[in-house]
């Protein structure tokens, strides 16, 4: 008996001590044929005899027994379907195209539910180009800019074999409007959409949508010209689903779609599965290279990063946490990259409330903030900027020189103090609003410090992130200044301008937190938004961006950067395309 | 016994009612916590917000909303405001992980707490006692999120001895289940081991000075029988009461930090996510579950208390 216990104890010690090395040795690099290396070590003398130690030894042996078995958990990478596992830090808001408004869900859903129009699968500005999706061509737009006509491609089928009909488009929009989707505001410009929402009857007709299943023609009439409507048609919300898809959240049983992948399994808060749709074939849209993508929820971002390092995950949607970034950059740089998203982080300056109703105070803020320091608060995942429009957005033209100084250089706080003195705002009380997510909280505290340094009397007010934007967007809050950001819904400057459009100010749910209300800018937005040919007016949009920054209506400081981090077995160099809207493009993923 | 059970049942209903009212009211007085406005998304118009309010019943009087919500809790129709998932289903999905964590850790902390506490009392003032005191102090002082993170990183990720997190269902792989829970059990139990050993030590030392111990010794009982049959049995009374409440709290989702650090996806982590999003339905349901377990385990503790202490009767 004693011999058994001694042996168990010894095995436990050896196995637990070496498990990581054994695993590393037993797990060859992709396609490697090398046999595992077993490291030998002199056996330690066995001297402990107490019952406690024996009990511990048995427990430990039992505990580590599965460890070795776990070494061989990963599937082989060759000879069989190519499968990968990716990690998300949270369950997406929905896995239903009518309801989802979260980037981590869009990354998957745009490959499952192709709308009438979509974007080219390319990096940089090329990726912002609209191309026909399920429609034969880009829409024909009437002279008054109110009527969009498209024709469905012939012979299309959903992933379950159901034929695609033109009327499915109206059904998809009805689902958005009837399910109180966050996508509703994008479609209320369609004639009759507001009435449809108010009536609350799913099967009611939306007057402005006419479809013909025989010819595949779809005609959409708007209440007023909207140059962004082609982009709206390319949103995931407008992804087609069969006409009999129920009016309910189908996250647990996602409906079929038309796309390079299909959602075959969904267990909320645990995982969902994308399988390649072998029948998919649309011009301009690549088919996937990976057969099966299992998206699993790993709520701890630190563990998710560790899992990519150890190969348990092949890719993670969210960036590593800041204190892991340095190690990842340094040790795994060959499978890690950072990219700038089409987003802007800024401080809103409420021009209706003292002291920010004085342009000099707003200018002072722009002179005072150190954009490099803020980038550091984001772990370096923030590109300092001067513009409100982010790089990559059509209409972006770098402001050089920047009126408030080089965003990558030290700020001019002396000038800022002068301006505060000139405005007579010294000692003015300011509440700086921010939310309690890690980076925004740090930035809010930094910003309050800066305002104090230039002569204001600022105090940070940090509230819960789940009610933050609703709070500062409520006119009764009278928020003076604070944290704000904007990620594109689609790559069009008008989309960004919604947060500075004076005509869009509303008492609640207002996203123009600074109440920017410049008649010239408002008129410019109104005029340019009607223009369907964005290329023709890109320079004019750039001029509006310049005016917004020069008049210091807000204080932009950076564009958020995100990351791509892959396991060793992924072919990072050849197969990691970053799309400007949907970020990492899974159709580009492949194994070594 | 019947009267006792009826009284407890009534108390349970009252406690659950009070807890539900308080939690429901808290979510209704949070500034800008209007779920309709949050669900409507960016730049939603008043019409859209109103449509949601009507559809979800947020325009009803508060007592009607409360009654509707409570009905949904018990009929299984409660829906999350943020991701529209069925709350009861999500709790049931997370319960196996929470139960596994709670039961395993509770057994560990009870056994080790009693063993260390009794040992320290018998060696009072000696080196072993002092060493256990220091260890207990460390166990009580070390925050579970810190200890858990260290264990997960060094024993899980760096050394690869244990998984750094995640939960493996018992039904799918019993060995894997235990293997995934070794670190969470240890991290959670350490806090309680320290606490319980200190309480038991004091209780045993107090017991040793009681006249009935002298009587037992005078009767010629062996020291072992005196200790186990008399001192320890009486000293366990406060421990049992503590254990019942602690176990109930952990069972009802109280091990939020441990579940989050080890990504166990149990009821506690579900509650933490819901709280972070001010999602009232899941918070209400988890709070009721916690209250239910506290009341239930309170009753069990009373019964065990009566069995241990002849002066106490369950009536």
Descriptive report:
The complex is a heterodimer of chains A (592) and B (315). Chain A is of the alpha+beta class and 592 residues long. Chain A has 17 helices and 20 strands. In chain A, the strands form 4 sheets. In chain A, strands 1, 8, 9, 10, 11, 12, 13, 14, 15, 16, 17 and 18 form a 12-stranded mixed sheet that branches. In chain A, strands 4-5-7-6 form a 4-stranded antiparallel sheet, with helices on one face. Chain A has a two-stranded antiparallel ribbon with strand order 2-3. In chain A, helix 1 (2-26) packs parallel to helix 2 (51-71). Mean pLDDT of chain A is 86; it is low at 1-78. Chain B is mainly alpha-helical. Chain B has a domain at 95-277: MetI-like (MetI-like fold), CATH 1.10.3720.10. Helix content of chain B is 78%, strand content 0%. At the A-B interface, helix 1, helix 2, helix 6, helix 8 and helix 14 of A face helix 2, helix 3, helix 7, helix 8 and helix 12 of B.
Put the structure in a nutshell:
Chain A is an alpha+beta fold and 592 residues long. Chain A is built from 17 helices and 20 strands. In chain A, the strands form 4 sheets. In chain A, strands 1, 8, 9, 10, 11, 12, 13, 14, 15, 16, 17 and 18 form a 12-stranded mixed beta sheet that branches. In chain A, strands 4-5-7-6 form a 4-stranded antiparallel beta sheet, covered by helices on one side. A two-stranded antiparallel sheet of chain A has the order 2-3.
């Amino acid at each position: 008996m004693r011999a058994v216990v001694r042996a168990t104890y010894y095995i436990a010690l050896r196995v637990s001590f070496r498990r990581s090395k054994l695993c590393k040795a037993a797990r060859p690099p992709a396609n490697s044929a090398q046999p595992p290396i077993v490291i030998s070590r002199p056996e330690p003398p066995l001297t402990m005899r107490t019952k406690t130690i024996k009990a511990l030894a048995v427990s430990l042996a039992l505990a580590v027994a599965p460890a070795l078995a776990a070494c061989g958990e990963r599937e082989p990478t060759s000879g069989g379907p190519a499968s990968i596992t990716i990690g998300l830090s949270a369950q997406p808001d929905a896995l239903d195209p009518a309801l989802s408004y979260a980037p981590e869900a869009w990354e998957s859903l745009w490959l499952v539910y192709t709308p009438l129009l979509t974007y080219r699968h390319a990096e940089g500005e090329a990726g912002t180009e609209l191309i026909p999706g399920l429609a034969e061509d880009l829409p024909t737009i009437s002279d008054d800019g109110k009527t969009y006509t498209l024709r469905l491609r012939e012979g299309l089928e959903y992933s379950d074999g159901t034929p695609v009909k033109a009327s499915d488009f109206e059904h998809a929009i009805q689902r958005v409007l009837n399910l109180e989707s966050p996508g509703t505001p994008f479609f209320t410009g369609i004639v009759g959409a507001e009435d449809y929402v108010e009536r609350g009857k799913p099967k009611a007709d939306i007057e402005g949508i006419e479809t013909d299943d025989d010819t595949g023609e779809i005609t959409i009439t708007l209440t007023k010209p909207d140059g962004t409507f082609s982009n709206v048609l390319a949103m995931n919300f407008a992804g087609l689903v069969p006409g009999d898809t129920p009016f309910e959240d189908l996250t647990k049983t996602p409906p079929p779609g038309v796309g390079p992948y299909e959602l075959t399994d969904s267990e909320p808060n645990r995982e969902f599965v994308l399988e390649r749709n072998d029948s998919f074939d649309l011009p301009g849209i690549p088919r996937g290279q990976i057969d099966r993508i299992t998206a699993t929820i790993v709520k701890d971002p630190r563990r998710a990063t560790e899992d990519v390092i150890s190969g348990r995950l092949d890719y993670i949607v969210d960036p590593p946490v800041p204190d892991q970034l340095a190690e990842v950059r340094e040790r795994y740089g060959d499978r890690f990259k950072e990219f700038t998203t089409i987003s802007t982080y800024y401080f809103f300056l409420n021009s209706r409330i003292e002291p920010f109703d004085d342009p000099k105070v707003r200018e002072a803020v722009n002179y005072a903030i150190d954009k490099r320091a803020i980038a550091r608060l984001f772990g370096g995942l923030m590109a300092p900027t001067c513009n409100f429009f982010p790089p990559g957005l059509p209409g972006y033209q770098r402001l050089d020189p920047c009126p408030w100084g080089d965003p990558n250089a030290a700020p001019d706080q002396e000038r800022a103090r002068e301006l505060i003195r000139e405005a007579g705002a010294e000692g003015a009380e300011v509440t700086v609003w921010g939310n309690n997510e890690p980076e925004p909280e740090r930035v809010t505290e930094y910003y309050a410090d800066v305002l104090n340094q230039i002569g204001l009397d600022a105090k940070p007010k940090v509230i819960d992130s789940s009610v933050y934007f609703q709070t500062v967007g409520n006119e009764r809050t009278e928020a003076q200044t604070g944290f704000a950001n904007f990620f594109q819904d689609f790559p069009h400057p008008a989309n960004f301008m919604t947060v500075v459009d004076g005509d869009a100010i509303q008492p609640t749910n207002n996203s123009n937190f600074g109440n920017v209300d410049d008649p010239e800018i408002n008129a410019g937005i109104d005029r340019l938004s009607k223009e369907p040919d964005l290329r023709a007016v890109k320079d004019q949009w750039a001029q509006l961006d310049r005016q917004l920054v020069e008049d210091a209506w807000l204080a932009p400081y950076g564009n958020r950067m995100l990351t791509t981090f892959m396991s060793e077995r992924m072919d990072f160099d050849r197969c990691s395309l970053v799309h400007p809207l949907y970020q990492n493009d899974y159709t580009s993923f492949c194994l070594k | 016994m019947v009267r006792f059970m009826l009284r407890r049942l009534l108390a349970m209903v009252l406690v659950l009612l009070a807890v539900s009212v308080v939690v429901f009211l808290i979510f209704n007085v949070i500034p800008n916590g209007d779920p309709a406005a949050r669900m409507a998304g960016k730049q939603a118009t008043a019409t859209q917000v109103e449509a949601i309010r009507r559809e979800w019943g947020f325009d009803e009087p508060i007592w009607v909303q409360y009654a509707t919500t409570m009905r949904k809790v018990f009929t299984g129709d409660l829906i999350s405001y943020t991701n529209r998932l069925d709350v009861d289903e999500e709790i049931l999905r997370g319960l196996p992980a929470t139960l596994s964590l709670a039961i395993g850790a509770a057994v560990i902390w009870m056994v080790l707490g009693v063993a260390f506490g009794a040992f320290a009392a018998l060696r009072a003032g000696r080196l072993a006692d002092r060493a256990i005191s220091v260890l207990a102090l460390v166990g009580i002082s070390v925050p579970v999120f810190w200890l858990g993170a260290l264990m997960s990183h060094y024993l899980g990720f760096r050394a690869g001895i244990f998984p750094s997190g995640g939960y493996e269902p018992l039904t799918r792989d019993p060995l894997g289940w235990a293997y995934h829970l070794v670190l969470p059990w240890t991290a959670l139990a350490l806090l309680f081991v320290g606490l319980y050993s200190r309480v038991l030590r004091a209780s045993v030392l107090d017991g040793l000075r009681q006249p009935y111990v002298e009587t037992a010794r005078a009767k010629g009982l062996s020291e072992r029988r005196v200790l186990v049959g008399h001192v320890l049995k009486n000293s366990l009374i406060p421990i049992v009461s503590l254990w019942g409440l602690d176990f109930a709290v952990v069972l009802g989702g109280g091990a939020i930090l441990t579940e989050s650090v080890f990504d166990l996806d149990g009821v506690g982590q579900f509650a933490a996510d819901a709280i972070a999003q001010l999602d009232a339905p899941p918070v209400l349901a988890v709070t009721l579950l916690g209250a239910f377990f506290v009341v239930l385990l309170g009753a069990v503790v009373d019964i065990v208390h009566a069995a241990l202490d002849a002066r106490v009767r369950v009536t």
